């Protein structure tokens, strides 16, 4: 292990000999995260073996991140409503039942204690005795009266009397607290039921992303679609590149996020998602794929996260669908098969071909190399044009030198003709 560390340090020192950066030995700190140790820069491990890329976002849109060592758990209780909404259904239903049951039992116990302290249990058969609650003869009947009070059922068999002021106060407290519990729990269940997570499942992304030429430019493309007839209002698309990097100062940034322009400046990121659309990213100098070629793409450890957002037309709630593409899911030299056809009076979308692609002629060079080749191809043309212009200028100069002699001869001929005409 010591030899391995020494060799890695030597490699780092050899690579950064002429640079004024921090000591690379800091990378081997004991508290370095596991992901950072796995994603060490390329120049540190030249002969590393190929390993499976760990997804940051799964294909179904769920983030593959687990929060550990969270000590300030009390923060979850400060936002108890969101905590309950985020719980799984089985825990949510369990808490829903337990809150009502505990509330009914608690107030039922208090009603029974009031009746017990007043002596109502000792005068059950005494018609001259006025109890706090009529026909309350035990804990079971007190529990039933608590349920009737909080849920406002009111069967009419057990009724509070006006000779019990403590019972009247308890009735007011239970009515108010019961309304609060109902509002809180019913609201929690309503929000959980109406969450747009299920709506996001009908927003689909293509299983692969493709790279091919479009309008003479190398583009990265993927396809999105909506399976429902009700549309997503104000739909917008975003894309992020997830890739670890190391700065020039030696700082290692795991899972660095870089924006991928999918039409933000032109407005193409705002979608009218009635039929499937192909989202295109032009690979230019500002693109993170500027220097990536077909041969280099499988060697890259990167992930493209795509995010589709919009409002559900039926409920007005914001919906978000996510997916991701790793290097093995990016096809170089392919295009998507068209899915939209014109029928008799309407357009039809064939979702059987939604994920299908077909191969097309695409250069295997990177966008940077293609731009350099294009600039080199223009140089001979400029040279030929300039040379022709120079030749044309030289010819004009020669013509100007010959023109005075010819003009003199012509003037002489004219003068001779005039003298002859005078004679």
From TrEMBL:
Pfam families: IRK, IRK_C. Residues 203-372 form the Inward rectifier potassium channel C-terminal domain. It is a multi-pass membrane protein. Keywords: Ion channel, Ion transport, Membrane, Phosphoprotein, Potassium, Potassium transport, Transmembrane, Transmembrane helix, Transport, Voltage-gated channel. Residues 57-196 form the Potassium channel inwardly rectifying transmembrane domain. It catalyses: K(+)(in) = K(+)(out). This is G protein-activated inward rectifier potassium channel 2. It comes from Echinops telfairi. The gene is KCNJ6.
